[in-house]
């Protein structure tokens, strides 16, 4: 892998995580007028239409089994992950979910070791994982007097982390099929929307257009659809294709860091000394986990 391609892969991963780390603001605003399932379906429907306009060429599967990989990625990375995460938030604290979701790279590494060639576990990864998770806990619970345990919601969050790890492995497999990244991402999102339809009947889908078309709400749903769905799923899948599932997933550690920083800037929340310390630990863990392959080349 060329140095320039690797830098591009890291840039794609960072852009993705930076945007995903700020989406909580848009989601929070939209929850005033939309349900979680309405937000999910609308954002990915917008994302699909945008990718269709950008690259309208129809994807033709080279082998029938490839469709199963696309379907699996859509079910895991689009439908199940976001539904599990949102349902978990109704049963447990957002801080709990934030911490638990951030351990997805650990599951990704285990799955990659089991199902992918050339992505073996290294001691540096586990060291970085422990340091990063410690930082994430400090960031998430610095304002809490005690750790609140809500078994059902926390279990759902763990399942969501496992599901995202499965998505990372599936997208790495798909990248080996040599399809156009935009076409492949669009097919994945299409399957995600299809699998989301039963949830629309269960949870209901009656978005208020009058509320949705107000400037603030329209801006935020477009941000989620254009940036967080269309752009980010393409850049994330591109990063996985270049860097591999394990190396890319490590960037998930940065989500709580970006969330804290953006909440200070946008919501004027105060950053405590504990938050700063947690951010430093998380970034240190990210660097250590990433460093292993750098050293191997030296």
UniProtKB/TrEMBL annotation:
This is Multidrug transporter. SUPFAM superfamilies: Multidrug resistance efflux transporter EmrE (SSF103481). One of its GO terms (cellular component) is plasma membrane. The keyword Transmembrane applies. It holds the Pfam family EamA. It comes from Paenibacillus borealis. Belongs to the EamA transporter family. InterPro entries: AA-Vitamin_Transporters (IPR050638), EamA_dom (IPR000620), EmrE-like (IPR037185). Keywords: Cell membrane, Membrane, Transmembrane, Transmembrane helix.
